[in-house]
Amino acid sequence: MTPKTLGADRFVPPGAGIERLEEAAETCEGCELHRDATQTVFGDGSATARIALVGEQPGDDEDRSGRPFTGPSGTLLYRALDQAGIDRGECYVTNAVKHFKFAQLQPGGRRIHKTPTRGEVNACRPWLLAELNAVKPELVVVLGATAGQSLMGPEFRISTRRGIIQDLVHDGLAESMKLMGTVHPSAVLRLRESERKEAFAQMLVDLRKAADFLETGHEKAG
């Protein structure tokens, strides 16, 4: 039997700032994922950030620490941001889903990441929209397909839209924003070592476009 997904709407305080949203998210039961996760992993960073980076969901490290992007993916992401010339102080990082979804083959064994379902992503979307409404970033960078589809719909594909800055208009957003997609850092880490360097370089190309946009206010030609 498929677990019932209710949605986070009733847990999200309308018009709240980031601190109040984070506090409220601690008790969210908008989908079944809260049952097995250690804790809610909310966003982190400047409440007036110029750029928001949105991943899929917290991983094992993040579930334990309670902060997003504290594991190997975060290490790679922050290295890429530094090399792209994006000030971390101008960033807000979060995930489309706030609880860790995993499979555990045996009690006490390694917890293996599982991709959240569309229903789980939809259930958690009110938190992401509330974060974006509170922070009001100039640019939202979605890391991977799950984050992109959370905001742009199921047709969004990183393979065809990566590095392209486009309008982000959503009924749940108080104002329109700009959005750009690139790969999730975990996708880079999963590659063979021989392929990882090129994938990281391609990610840097995307993030440098984001840096150019923050500097000039528009996408750099060519």
From TrEMBL:
The keyword Secreted does not apply. Keywords: 4Fe-4S, DNA damage, DNA repair, Hydrolase, Iron, Iron-sulfur, Metal-binding. InterPro entries: UDG_Type-4/5, Ura-DNA_glyco_family4, Uracil-DNA_glycosylase-like, Uracil-DNA_glycosylase-like_sf. Residues 42-204 form the Uracil-DNA glycosylase-like domain. GO terms for molecular function: 4 iron, 4 sulfur cluster binding; deaminated base DNA N-glycosylase activity; metal ion binding. GO terms for biological process: DNA repair. Belongs to the uracil-DNA glycosylase (UDG) superfamily. Type 4 (UDGa) family. NCBIfam families: UDG_fam4 (TIGR00758), UDG_fam_dom (TIGR03914). This is Type-4 uracil-DNA glycosylase. It comes from Glycomyces buryatensis.
